[in-house]
Amino acid sequence: MSRTLQSAKLRHAFRRIAVWGPGLLVMLADADAGNVVTAAQAGAQWGYRFLPLLLVLIVPLYLIQELTVRLGVYTRRGYGALVREFFGTGWAWVSVATLGVAATGTLVTEFSAVAGIGEMVGLSRAMSLPAAALALLAVIATGAYRRVERTALVIGLFELAFFVVAWTAHPDWRAVAGEAADYPLSDNAFLYLTAALIGAVFNPWMVFFQHAAVAARRLSPTDLTAARIDTAAGALFTQLLTAAVLIAAVTTLGGIAAHTSLDSVGEISQSLVPALGTTVAHLVFGVGVLGAAMVAAIVASLALVSGVGEVAGSRRSLELRPQLAPWFYGFYALAIAGSAALVWAVPDLVWLNIGAQVVNALLLPVVLGLLLVLAGRALPQEARPRGAYKFALVSLTCAVCALGWVGALAGWLTSI
To answer: What is the mean pLDDT of residues 254-259?
Structure first.
């Protein structure tokens, strides 16, 4: 083999590796504190009944995010910019409004997790929240997108702790099989948690962030296979991680027989003390949840500011220094400070963690509906979904949106 051919193959291999990042990052962010609390609540109250749903959702999660990647590769423009071009400014602001609601809810839940972990180890909110806010601002102040991405990925590795928890919990697999086949679909509380889990898996800012990240890397169609692998690995990882949290909650909180209702993230850690010991239980859940919260806060914040910037036509690139894009960094700082202040003022945010996921489920038809239509308008003919793949994409997306709405309405009608 000639040296030139070897060199070409090496360049091709490194190019494929370099494509990895946005899919894994956005999925790590998706397994955030709100996701953890919702999965733990589902396991504590309903045992293993939600486990099949978490695993089945891997497929539509991949299909939706793969379509996002495809649009980013072929158009090299962000989601907000495409919506503005093909649907007009009005729909663009509608889409970014859904992003704002979802991203703000995510920031609040992440800061509530930071506060909860801080209180678990004896730190007051007056210390933990400003420290977390300053850390996020410092990450962005570097002005380099790739540096932000690497930082978030390193922090996200702490989420692997949840797999350790699930493994040491020793689940009863016969109980798993039995409860997984028993779905109380007539129970409105069950349907409400179903909507919350759907909202935790499919968040509007995921579409904005991965779309923008892929476009910023200026990937070509030859990179699409590697980007798809990145996205598939991320979808598999985040859902298995969420399943691990649910399994840990079932085995340590007693499952449906106990009808347990969580009050804080720290309570999950306390429930693992008999199995892991106080120090290890606090360390495993504390570091894991903190890592998840920080990754999600970074990604949701960047998705929010980037999405607003695309629609407004303002500078938004993380490659620009703060003095070159003051609007971008100013908006980001405001979002961070406001969310941290809200968590500081409200004593109990567990209900908001789950409620925020339900709101996400209600927002999905807008973002995903526009995404599907964009696939038929913005993509070149040869890159558009077709045949069985298109049928699976559309039908599963519609099913996810419908189930989310049904669950949300069922829960809210019960509370009236």
So the answer is: 52
The token duo for 142 is 């570097």
User: Both tokens of residue 79?
Assistant: 């989601």
CA dist., res. 355 & res. 118, Å (int) = 23
Q: 60-79, pLDDT tens digit by residue?
A: 999 999 999 999 889 888 88
Chain centroid to Cα 114, Å, comes to: 17
Give the number of other CB atoms < 10 A from CB of residue 193.
25
Query: What Rg value do the Cα atoms of the chain yield, rounded?
Result: 21
Token readout for 20 is: 């990895």
CATH classification number, 19-415, choose in 1.20.1250.20, 1.20.1740.10, 1.10.390.10, 3.30.300.30: 1.20.1740.10
Contact 352, 38 (CB under 8 A): no
Output 253 or 389, whichever has higher pLDDT: 389
Contact 26, 210 (CB under 8 A): yes
Token output for 199:
């909202």
First to last CA, the chain: 73
